[in-house]
Amino acid sequence: MALDEYKPQKGGTEYDPEKTEFTFVGTRPDRPDGLDKVTGRAKFGADMSAPGMLHAAIVRSPHAHARIVKIDTSKAEAMKGVKAVVTRADFADDIPFKPGMGGELWNVLENVMAGEKALYDGHAVAAVAATSALEARDAAKLIEVEYEVLPHVTDVDKAMAPDAPVIRAGTRDRSVPEGFNENVVRYHESGHGDVESGFAEADLVIEDHFKTEATHQGYIEPHACLAMLGNDGKGELWCCTQGHWNVQKLCAALVGIEQSQLRVTASEIGGGFGGKTAVFIEPVALALSRKANRPVKLVMSRSEVFRATGPTASTSMDIKIGMKKDGTITAAQGTFRLQGGAFPGAPCEFTAMCAFAPYALENVHQVGYDVMTNRPKQAAYRAPGSPMAAFAVESVIDELCKQLDLDPIEVRLKNASKEGTKASYGPRFQRIGLVETLEAAKAHPHYSAPLKPGQGRGISCGFWFNHGGETSVTLAMSEDGSAQLMVGTPDIGGSRASMALMAAEELGIPYENIRVTIADTASLGYNEVSHGSRVTYASGLATIQAARDTVRKLKKRAADKWGIDEDAVYWEDGYAKPSGPNAGEFEPMHISKICAKMGATGGPIVGHYEATPEGAGVSFATHIVDAEVDPETGKTSVVRYTVVQDAGKAIHPTYVEGQYQGGAAQGIGWALNEEYIYGEDGRLQNSVFLDYRIPVASDLPMIDTVIVEVPNPGHPYGVRGVGETSICPPLAAIANAVSAAAGARLRELPMSPPRILAALEKQANG
Amino acid sequence: MKYHKPQDFDEASRLAAGAKGATRFLAGGTDVLVQMRADVFTPDEIIDLKHIPGVKDITRRADGGWTIGIAVSGAEMSEHADLHAEWPGLVEAMDLIGSTQVQGRATLVGNLCNASPAADSVPAMIAAGVTVTVTGPNGSREVAVEDIPTGPGKTALARGELISAVNIPARGDHGGDAYERFIPRTEMDIAVVGVGINLRLDGDTVTEARVGLGAVAPTALLVQEAADAIIGTTLDDAALDKLAAATSAACKPINDKRGTVEFRTHVAGVLARRVALTAYKRAKG
Ligand SMILES: Cc1cc2nc3c(=O)[nH]c(=O)nc-3n(C[C@H](O)[C@H](O)[C@H](O)COP(=O)(O)OP(=O)(O)OC[C@H]3O[C@@H](n4cnc5c(N)ncnc54)[C@H](O)[C@@H]3O)c2cc1C
């Protein structure tokens, strides 16, 4: 979810409290795309080819910060098989630079292809297309780039220092107070009450400092695309993305064509987690294609994925919380410094706003800094900014509970946000389920299970806003009474199954009779990216509305046939029925019978819904983790894990559980071993999976899940998004478990074995 | 690029001696082919050794030892019941390499000649006293495993020389070996420290020992001081403390993305203790 898209949640299509009995919703059928995926038939980004296709390779900066003095492409252009070379000069030149997020399109262009300076190790500076992938690779080596190396900075705290090299003067916007290094480009401050008097009321105040390293979304499928752009300004693009309308919009602007002239089709997607909401290679492939007048395929290597896409922001945070002996939190304050690479956009406001959201606080104050460094442009990663905040805040709450000898769940229950609570970030909460997740966690056998020596238990809460966004859905009936549902949100988590279940529920036809297609940009109205946990909420809501629109039309056909008013017809289990003796005695008419005649009774029957729903309910989770630490080597194993989260209403419980487990699994990696490691030279040292230590299957315990259902008032069935909240508590819950097991507080992520040993040693030496 | 398929080791040696440009021998290819695909190193000539008769054989020699063909994969070693029973440490070291897929291809010789300081089978081979037969333009010679790697990516093999067999000594009585590595995850990772220990007992007393140490110096090391710390002992706490100290003292690691100097040095000692206890238990039977 991009920064400028956050809107306070309100209104929308209301929850229907009468609708408690479901036929399809809540069942667990196989996903419609399952067979394709397990047999390898599904087409991912790199699976599309075209006749006469060229292959492309990108030349990337080996320097963290350098002025580009000269690019000599002559040798590459002279090589056999080379058909096109592009540099920044081949992209739009009318996109203005503006401070802060106002110039985001310029930022995207600058990231896609460097202009005057290379801003990080891996920054694209040129690209070449040739008749084979090997030729393209060799030709890329023949492109000579002359650099003037500049001083660089990759650490957030160092980038804020007065003498740090400035990445790009003029980028900071007006929110930033006087006196900061120009690398501080945006500033956020919020809260209410008076924290100083709050701290004065506390029996114990703890203030601590925390750091987290950047991690990558780690999707298994690297970015890949096939682009065709003719000299007539008409283009076709096939790519792996979380949102193809966004790709259409950005690419059209970056290569200077009309949006509608570029048709974009989203391939199947091998993971995105927020990292595929941006464009990287797509505009480059289009520019090459236009120059060569041939289709161009561009596939990133894993190393390119690490160096030039993703990752999250890294953080440096200060937290201060005051508590009374009975567990009441009297005040909370946080300072959150995020670096998001060489561009503005690190989600410092989300971090600040989420930090204390689980708690009803009279006195709360939070500050966020968006800081630029010589690293790749950060991209969204599940609940951007929230997991880091939870790590810092929930670690301090854990420490307060420990020192005051209080149960961590009881303390959280005592302070928990509820319906009507004024949130730490401003608005009053509508109906929410935090207390219910805490109660379920407390009652879960995991919470009271005995621990073995060397093990520790941690808990944490987590919060995410969730999002609605522009949505457009079409449901078309076939003559046999089956239905084709077209949605515009790429299926990144089993959403086709959920859409089919909701459509089946409304139409009263079997799940299997609904074919769900992710339509291309030419086949539907605009759809926002699959992000912000919005798909089951927003595309789901739109599916329900499109199905209701279809049902209205179906009822009308029956009413016309019977010669009665359409209001005298109701819909039940796939049949139009007269609504009582006054309406007349008619045999119920099945959907297949109505559809069989639709050509003759008024034409095709199609339902629509287009809107920007704004009632995505916020969501909370509570996680319980047991960890075991080897005190001699600092190695940690997560031995038991339970996720409790509010889903509002679980449409397909298996895929809800999958999201819960996935968030926990990614959180385990982030907490324990994943990190971006930069050398003194500012180069990324671990750009392969061998050294970027994502968890493997054997690193994970079976992750237990509990689905809590507190309906979201803004969705007809009560759905809340579930894709992001699940990654908010893990960092803190694992840190609390590891700290308990090790007997020493861990304040820096990842909690790699060397860090844990160092913490143990520090503890032993007092 | 040229691809050769010699039918015997002399031919392979002649091809290597006469090759123009950079040459790689091809055993399992899990280093060679991966480095090519990743654009790390592309040889001009590839000499595939898998078609030489006998390279896939595991043979019991008359002296009771084993000769392992240079193309025998890790999976084949793990599934060889007698070899596994006699040299569990060596087999488990080889078995740690990669995944099921990699196990179907990866070889001892490839692991040794790729000359990574972190190669898993190498400390275990050093501990076991394994030698290799080197065939070259001037005939064949037998070389101890610890004398093959000379630095990261470098070996003592001269131009035209290659390894034609791996020789494991006879197990003898009351012996046991073990290997352990430290990685932050459970698998699919590269050793931060690796320790292999092979010992022989007379009753409860250690009479012979060899300690191989990996990933803490430019090449895997044979650590005599560490072996001396336990020879003549019953592996009591004092002996284990001395072993750990001697092992740590032998470390000459670097700070890198995989571990710090302090961490590697400390963990080498921790692992040495654990590995010695396992080898001891195995020797007891
Ligand atoms: C996914 C993955 C995981 C891995 N995990 C590990 C791990 O955990 N631990 C580890 O140690 N390694 C690991 N490796 C590295 C690799 O698998 C091992 O080094 C393996 O033992 C190499 O054997 P090979 O037969 O495949 O060698 P090849 O790739 O065929 O050859 C490797 C080198 O040996 C030389 N060579 C081969 N045969 C001879 C010969 N007869 N004489 C002289 N030189 C020769 C070649 O010229 C080349 O330089 C991993 C690799 C991959 C791809």
Describe this structure in words.
The complex is a heterodimer of chains A (766) and B (285). Chain A has three domains: 3-30 and 468-611, Aldehyde Oxidoreductase, domain 4 (2-Layer Sandwich); 46-150 and 223-299, Aldehyde oxidase/xanthine dehydrogenase, a/b hammerhead (Aldehyde Oxidoreductase, domain 3, Alpha-Beta Complex); 314-466 and 617-764, Aldehyde oxidase/xanthine dehydrogenase, molybdopterin binding domain (Aldehyde Oxidoreductase, domain 4, 2-Layer Sandwich), CATH 3.30.365.10. Helices cover 28% and strands 23% of the residues of chain A. Chain A is built from 20 helices and 27 strands. In chain A, strands 3-5-1-12-9-10-11 form a seven-stranded mixed sheet. In chain A, α7 (244-255) packs across α8 (282-292), α10 packs parallel to α11 (386-404) and α18 (653-672) crosses α19. By secondary structure, chain B is of the alpha+beta class. Chain B has a domain at 175-284: Enolase-like, domain 1. Chain B contains eleven helices and 14 strands. Chain B has helices spanning 9-18, 32-37, 74-78, 81-86, 88-95, 100-103, 108-113, 121-128, 224-230, 237-250, 261-284; strands at 2-4, 23-26, 45-48, 58-60, 66-68, 131-136, 139-144, 149-151, 154-155, 162-168, 175-182, 193-202, 205-214, 221-222. In chain B, the strands form four sheets. Chain B has a five-stranded antiparallel sheet. In chain B, strands 11-12-13-14 form a four-stranded antiparallel sheet. At the A-B interface, α20 of A face α11 of B. Bound molecules: flavin-adenine dinucleotide. Flavin-adenine dinucleotide is lined by residues 24-32, 34, 49, 70, 96-99, 102, 105-107, 109-111, 113-114, 119-120, 157, 162-163 of chain B.
Q: Give the DSSP E fraction of chain A (strand runs of 2 or more residues).
A: 15-25%
Q: Provide the list of bound ligands, each named once.
A: flavin-adenine dinucleotide
Shape of chain A: globular
- By helix and strand content of chain B, what is the structural category? alpha+beta
- Termini of chain A, distance in Å? 44 Å
